[in-house]
Design brief:
The protein is an all-alpha fold and about 180 residues long. The protein contains 8 helices and 2 strands. It folds into 2 domains: about 70 residues, 434 Repressor (Amino-terminal Domain); about 70 residues, no CATH class. The longest helix has 11 residues. It is globular and about 45 Å long. The protein starts with a helix and ends in a 7-residue tail after the last helix.
Length: about 180
């Protein structure tokens, strides 16, 4: 790690259980001790190209290598294997363009769960609620989790936790695994 890369190292920010890589990268770069103009500048310094910017948006083709994650982990102070847990399991299709949220989960612990992006997940198993993908007040789609600094709609400022009352109860088929098994 070069001296200029070392300046990015901060106190270790522990990831939350099932936290998505997008949300974690956003939290990490917003720490006061991190001096980043963009996640892209760190990605270039680590010779990862545009990988980190793609990961923030869930564009995972090509899927990150363990070597890339270990390189990033050195800067962030966490193991590459732990970073890998913030990505979907290989072969698990995810929604890339539609960001989804269980407001009840977010109210309990404010971070984005990777499982909400799985195509096989239409509802929260814990709360039995369908996931939201847009603000129920102004109908603007949710931004990428890396941008969830304030936990509110970027247009009308409605808090995510106040959107709970707009989540519909899940039907039985919403809670079933819809992935095809071979």
């Amino acid at each position: 790690m070069s001296d200029s890369t070392a300046e990015y190292f901060s106190v270790v920010l522990q990831p939350d259980e099932d936290e998505s890589i997008s949300h974690y990268l956003g939290r990490w770069k917003r720490q006061e001790v991190v001096s980043l103009s963009s996640i892209g500048s760190l990605s270039r310094q680590l010779k990862l190209g545009t990988a980190m910017s793609r990961w923030e948006k869930f564009y995972l083709n090509p899927f990150p290598t363990l070597k890339q994650l270990e390189q990033l982990g050195k800067v962030m102070g966490i193991e590459g294997d732990r970073l890998l847990l913030m990505f979907p399991p290989k072969g698990e299709p995810i929604n890339v363009r539609i960001i989804r949220l269980c407001c009840a989960c977010y109210d309990e612990a404010p971070y984005h769960r990777m499982k909400w992006q799985f195509q096989s997940t239409a509802a929260c198993e814990k709360h039995q609620l369908r996931l939201l993908y847009k603000c129920p007040n102004c109908e603007v789609h949710l931004p990428i989790p890396a941008e969830w600094e304030s936990g509110r709609c970027r247009k009308c400022q409605m808090l995510f936790r106040s959107m709970i009352k707009h989540q519909k109860t899940a039907r039985t088929y919403d809670l079933m695994d819809t992935s095809v098994s071979t």
